[in-house]
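Encode chain A's predicted structure.
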Amino acid sequence: MPSAHFRAGVVIVVRHPDTHEVLAFERRDARGHWQLPQGGLHDGETPLEGAWREMLEETGLDEHDVELVSEHPEWLVYEWPLEVQRAKGGMHHRIGQVQRWFTFHPRSADLAPTPDGTEFVAWKWVTPEWLIDHVPGWRRGPYQAVLGQHR
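Encoded structure for chain A:
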C-alpha cells in the first residue's frame, strides 16, 4: 500500500484491558494536542518492527511492558492539509500517510511510559472517544476506524 506520495508508517495503541482507555501523548511542539505514538518506517523494516522501534523511541515501552494483541487488517490512509504537505512533503512531494495500526495491552496495571521529550512531553489514559475528538480533523478518519471499534 505505501506509495511515492504517501509516507509509510505505523501507529501504536496501548489499550488498558480493564478500562479500555488508551494511552495518549501530548505533543511537545503543540501543547494541548494529544495523539498516539506513530512514525515512519525505515527502509527494509516491517510494520511490526517499526511499531516496536517507534514505541521504544517515543514512550520507553518495550516487550517487557506491553504485549501485542492485534494488528488492524488493512493500511489506513489520510492526506495532510496543504500547509502540512508543504512542510513535510519534501523532495518526494508526499501528500499524506499510509499506516498500519497495532494494539498492545500493558503487562502490568502500573504501566508508566517515559515520553521521549522530543516529540512527547506527557501522557495520560483517555477514552477512545476523547482522543478521537482531540486529534486534528485531518487525522480523525483512521482514529475513528480503529478506536471507534472500542467506543
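Helices lie at 47-59, 82-88, 128-134, 140-147.
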